[in-house]
Specification:
ATP hydrolysis activity, 2 domains, ABC_transporter-like_ATP-bd, Rossmann fold, 4-stranded antiparallel β-sheet, 6-stranded mixed β-sheet, about 260 residues, about 25% strand, P-loop_NTPase, ABC transporter ATP-binding protein, ATP binding, binds adenosine-5'-triphosphate, alpha/beta
């Protein structure tokens, strides 16, 4: 599904958060949004999800104005994504039950999706009985089970340690390869953006405008990002972080910007 922002702006009271944002996001494309904390990245996702209305301009999904939430545009965020009182399988199945799929069929598909994200054997565990990484695997299964056409990911792996984050990035990449949704990914982790994204948009401080766009489509990527050192440096430079500090700030939130 193609997602188009047309001169989108957003203010909350007197606070202008987004100023005249226009971009197209093509079917199957993954675009990472990076920028200083509080610049308006999550707000852009909420507008695309139909949870917030733009103050001016519009967002179109395959040419039709987004007027509210719809299951084909799925938002997934960092924490508290699963219902603690439901097992992993019940959490995943719920996405289908909400779409009126019968319970047995929903359970069967949930078990299959949990296996895809390497959670076979944990179907009947409750979220508090598994690790943070496993919870986010289950959240990915729940996001993908209803075949969303647009996936809006708000720092989905932000709470995980670096190693777990990488395995989740691999899992996400695999799921995307099969399902081909259009993905907008908000992340503070520049390496995550480099690894996953076809394009990276770097935003200014609020009100958010695009400082620069990097096109990385069709490049072969592994977690060894040494070939991307130059782009990485440029992005960090745009964010006001200088090379001598780089090792400490792969996750830019940690740098307090
Ligand atoms: N519903 C709301 N009502 C009032 N102000 C809001 C609302 N949502 C967001 N804001 C404000 O809009 C600004 C941008 O918030 P947003 O969450 O979009 O930033 P962000 O770039 O995603 O930040 P972070 O990277 O820290 O998550 C902030 O100043 C925030 O306080």
């Amino acid at each position: 599904m193609k997602l188009s922002f047309k001169h989108t702006a957003k203010s909350f009271g007197g606070l202008q958060v987004i100023e005249d944002f226009s971009r197209d996001f093509e079917e199957g494309e993954l675009v990472a949004l990076v920028g200083p904390s509080g610049c308006g990245k999550s707000t852009l996702l909420h507008i695309a999800a139909g949870l917030e209305k733009p103050s001016a301009g519009s967002v179109l999904a395959d040419g039709k104005a987004v007027a509210g939430p719809h299951p084909e545009r799925m938002l997934m965020f960092q924490e508290n994504a699963l219902y603690p009182w439901l097992t992993l399988a019940q959490n995943v199945a719920m996405a289908l039950e909400l779409q009126k799929v019968d319970k047995l069929q929903a359970r069967k598909q949930a078990v299959e999706w949990l296996a895809k994200v390497k959670l076979k054997g944990f179907e009947d565990y409750y979220p508090h009985q598994v690790s943070g990484g496993m919870r986010q695997r289950a959240a990915l299964a729940r996001a993908f089970i209803s075949h969303p056409k647009v996936l809006l990911l708000d720092e989905p792996f932000g709470a995980l340690d670096a190693l777990t984050r990488m395995t989740l990035q691999d899992a996400l990449r695999e799921l995307i390869r099969e399902a081909r949704p259009t993905v907008l990914l908000v992340t503070h982790d520049v390496d995550e953006a480099l690894f996953l994204a076809d394009r990276i948009l770097v935003f200014s401080a609020r009100p958010a405008t695009v400082l620069q766009e990097f096109n990385l489509a069709h490049l072969e990527k592994t977690h060894d990002l040494s070939d991307f050192a130059e782009v990485r440096r440029e992005i960090l430079g745009l964010l006001g972080i200088h090379a001598e500090h780089e090792d400490n700030i792969a996750i830019i939130e940690g740098a307090g910007i």
